[in-house]
Design a protein that fits this description.
The chain is built from 21 helices and 13 strands. The chain is α/β, with parallel strands linked by helices and 574 residues long. Helix 17 crosses helix 20. The structure holds arginine.
C-alpha cells in the first residue's frame, strides 16, 4: 500500500473507534518541517458534525491511532494532527523503493483502456492546436502503461471529410497535366493552399471537388488510388512530427475515420431498429431528451445527411461501437478540444441509448482549453494562419541551442545540438503538461525555456547535477550499498517526497491531470537542491556519505522516470 493510503487507513480506523464514522481525514504533506512530515486535516469538519470540540476529537483519534510508523504525533492549531514518521520506517520504505524497477508503484487491477488522442485532420499540416491532445494523451498512454493497464492508442485521424474533394480534384488535374504527383505532394502545405484557393476561385473546380467526395466515399477506384497516395504522404508528415516530439504513436495506432466506412450504414440501420431515428428535412436524426436548445426543443444529432453522406458524428458512433462492443474496452478516454463537448456528450448518450455502451464502461471526454498569445488572442501566425507544429519544434530547438551554447560553450556542436533538441522539445511539452488541462494558457518561449521555475529545463538540469555527483566521483549508483540514515530535517523531507511518487501517479490518472506529476517533480527537485546545499555528500563520513548518495540516486531515478512518463527526455550534461 502506498504511504498515503496506509496512513489514511490507520486514521479511518481511529475515526471509527472515536465514534465519528470511518471517513479518513485528508492527509497532506506538511509544508513546514516543524509541522511534521504529513498532516491530517478534516478533524474540524468531523468534529462539527459530531458536535465535539475539534481538539478533543483530535486527542481521541490520536489515542486510538495504530500507526507504529509515526515516532511522534502532535495536535496543532485548531485540530490538525502532525505526523512525524520514524526515520527507520522511512529508510526501510526507501530500501524497497530502491530495489524496485517501478520505484514503489504497486500495480493494481489491469483494465483495457482506449486512448483517443492527437487525431489530426489529414487534409492539413499538423498545427499548434494538436499539441495539447497529442502531448497530454501520450503522457496518459505512458502512465497507464506503467501502471500495468492494457493501453490501446487510437489515432482517430480525419481522412474522409469534404476537404478531400478539392485535394483529389487537384491531384487529378495535375496528373492529367502530366505532372509527377509525388513531387507536388512533397510540399504538402503549398499543395493544400493551391487546392483550396482553386476551390474558392473556380466554380467548375468546386463542382468537381464535390463530386470527388461522393466518388471517394462510394469506392471509385481511381479516387481511392489518388486518395491513398495523398494519405500516405500526410501520414508520413504526422509521423515525422511525432518522432520530433517524442510521441509514442506509430502508423499502427491509426484507426482512421475511413476505416469505419462500411459500418456506417449498419450503425444507421441499428439505430433505426432501436427506434432512435427521426427523419427531419430528409436527414436522419437522433433526438435525445437531455439535449435541448435555447427554445427548450430537443436538438437533432444528425447521423446521415439528406444527400446520403455521413457526418463526423456517424464515424464517431461507429468508432464507439467498435471500442465498446468489439474491443470490449473497460474505458475510453477522448482527449479532445473543449469545443467538442456537445458532440461528445451526444455521442456517449447515443452509445448508451443504442445499447453499445454499458454503465460499467467508463467512456469520458477529457477536454482542454486553447493555447493563447500573450495578448490573450488565439496563438496564430502574423497573417492569421495556424502555427505549424513542425515550426514550433524547430524554433524550440534553435532557441534551446542558443541557451545551451551560452551556458556550456565548451561542448562540441553535435553534443549541443543533441541537448538542444531534448531541452527545446521538453520545454514545449512540459509547458503544456504543467498547466491545468481544462484552462487556456499563454504560449511563452521565455518562460518555458527558463532554467528557473517549474520548467523542463530546470528539472533536466537538476537531473544532470545529480548525475554529475556520480560521474565526478566515479561511483556507479548500481554499486551503492548501505542504508538511508536520516539525520537532518531536510533529509526526512526529501525521503517523504520520494516515497510519494507512487501516490502521485495514482492521483494523476484519476482525472488525467498531468500537472500533478509536474508539480511533484518540481517540488522534489527543489527539496533536492536544498538538501544538496545543506548537506555535504562526498565529504561526509562513510555511512552518511553512502546514505546521501542513495538519496541522490533515488532522486535522479524518480526525476528521469517521472519525466519519461511525461514523454520528456533527460541528458547527462547540459
Ligand atoms: N479529427 C478531429 C478534429 O481535428 C478530432 C477527433 C477527435 N476524436 C474523436 N473521436 N472525435 O477535430
Amino acid at each position: 500500500m502506498n504511504l498515503k493510503s496506509h496512513i489514511e487507513a490507520a486514521f479511518s480506523a481511529a475515526f471509527e473507534l472515536a465514534g465519528v464514522g470511518a471517513q479518513p481525514p485528508v492527509i497532506k504533506q506538511s509544508q513546514r518541517p516543524e509541522f511534521g512530515h504529513d498532516q491530517a486535516n478534516g478533524i474540524m469538519g468531523a468534529a462539527k458534525k459530531a458536535g465535539l470540540k475539534p481538539r478533543e476529537l483530535a486527542e481521541q483519534v490520536v489515542g486510538h491511532l495504530q500507526l507504529p510508523e509515526a515516532e511522534k504525533l502532535e495536535i496543532a492549531g485548531p485540530g490538525f494532527i502532525n505526523i512525524h514518521l520514524a526515520g527507520e520506517f522511512l529508510a526501510s520504505r526507501l530500501a524497497s523503493m530502491q530495489a524496485d524497477p517501478k520505484l514503489g508503484y504497486e500495480t493494481g487491477l489491469s483494465r483495457k483502456i482506449v486512448l483517443d488522442y492527437s487525431a489530426p485532420n489529414l487534409a492539413k499540416e499538423m498545427h499548434i492546436g494538436h499539441l495539447r491532445s497529442t502531448s497530454i494523451g501520450d503522457a496518459a498512454a505512458r502512465i497507464l502503461t506503467f501502471q500495468g493497464h492494457e493501453v490501446i492508442r487510437a489515432n482517430h485521424v480525419g481522412d474522409w471529410g469534404a476537404q478531400f474533394g478539392s485535394l483529389l480534384a487537384y491531384m487529378d488535374q495535375l496528373d492529367q497535366a502530366g505532372e509527377t504527383l509525388s513531387t507536388a505532394l512533397s510540399d504538402l502545405e503549398k499543395f493544400y493552399m493551391q487546392a483550396s484557393s482553386l476551390f474558392k476561385s473556380d466554380e467548375a473546380f468546386a463542382a468537381k471537388a464535390r463530386q470527388y467526395v461522393v466518388r471517394l466515399q462510394s469506392g471509385d477506384e481511381r479516387c481511392r488510388t489518388l486518395w491513398q497516395q495523398f494519405i500516405t504522404e500526410s501520414v508520413n508528415h504526422c509521423q515525422a512530427v511525432y518522432e520530433a516530439l517524442n510521441i509514442t504513436l506509430t502508423r499502427d495506432d491509426i484507426k482512421a475515420e475511413s476505416s469505419y466506412n462500411d459500418d456506417l450504414p449498419v450503425v444507421v440501420a441499428e439505430l433505426t431498429g432501436k427506434g432512435l431515428i427521426t427523419e427531419s428535412d430528409g436527414a436522419k436524426c437522433v433526438f435525445l431528451d437531455e439535449f435541448r436548445g435555447k427554445d427548450d426543443k430537443p436538438l437533432p444529432a444528425i447521423v446521415q445527411k439528406s444527400d446520403q453522406g455521413y457526418p463526423y458524428l456517424a464515424s464517431d458512433i461507429a468508432a464507439l461501437r467498435y471500442r465498446a462492443t468489439n474491443l470490449k474496452a473497460d474505458a475510453a478516454y477522448y482527449f479532445v478540444d473543449a469545443r467538442q463537448k456537445l458532440h461528445l456528450s451526444q455521442l456517449f448518450a447515443i452509445g448508451r441509448a443504442a445499447g453499445y455502451l454499458q454503465t460499467s464502461q467508463d467512456f469520458r471526454h477529457l477536454p482542454f482549453g486553447v493555447i493563447l498569445k500573450e495578448d490573450g488572442k488565439p496563438f496564430k501566425t502574423r497573417d492569421g494562419a495556424d502555427v505549424k507544429l513542425a515550426d514550433v519544434v524547430s524554433e524550440a530547438t534553435e532557441r534551446a541551442f542558443a541557451l545551451v551554447s551560452e551556458k556550456n560553450p565548451a561542448l562540441d556542436e553535435a553534443q549541443r545540438r543533441d541537448i538542444a533538441r531534448v531541452v527545446g522539445v521538453g520545454a514545449v511539452k512540459y509547458a503544456e503538461l504543467s498547466k491545468n488541462r481544462t484552462t487556456d494558457y499563454v504560449f511563452d518561449w521565455d518562460t518555458m525555456l527558463a532554467f528557473e521555475g517549474n520548467t523542463a529545463p530546470y528539472l533536466q538540469y537538476a537531473y544532470t547535477r545529480i548525475r554529475s555527483i556520480f560521474s565526478r566521483s566515479g561511483i556507479d549508483p548500481e554499486d551503492l550499498t548501505g542504508k538511508v540514515i536520516l539525520q537532518e530535517e531536510i533529509e526526512s523531507q526529501l525521503a517523504v517526497k520520494l516515497l510519494q511518487f507512487s501516490e502521485t501517479l495514482v492521483s494523476v490518472t484519476e482525472d488525467f491531470q498531468a500537472n500533478l506529476l509536474c508539480n511533484y517533480l518540481f517540488e522534489l527537485a527543489g527539496l533536492f537542491m536544498s538538501f544538496y546545499e545543506q548537506c555535504p555528500v562526498l565529504k561526509a563520513e562513510p555511512d552518511i556519505r553512502a546514505s546521501r548518495l542513495l538519496l541522490a540516486s533515488l532522486t535522479a531515478r524518480v526525476l528521469s522516470n517521472g519525466l519519461d512518463l511525461l514523454g520528456i527526455e533527460t541528458v547527462e550534461q547540459m
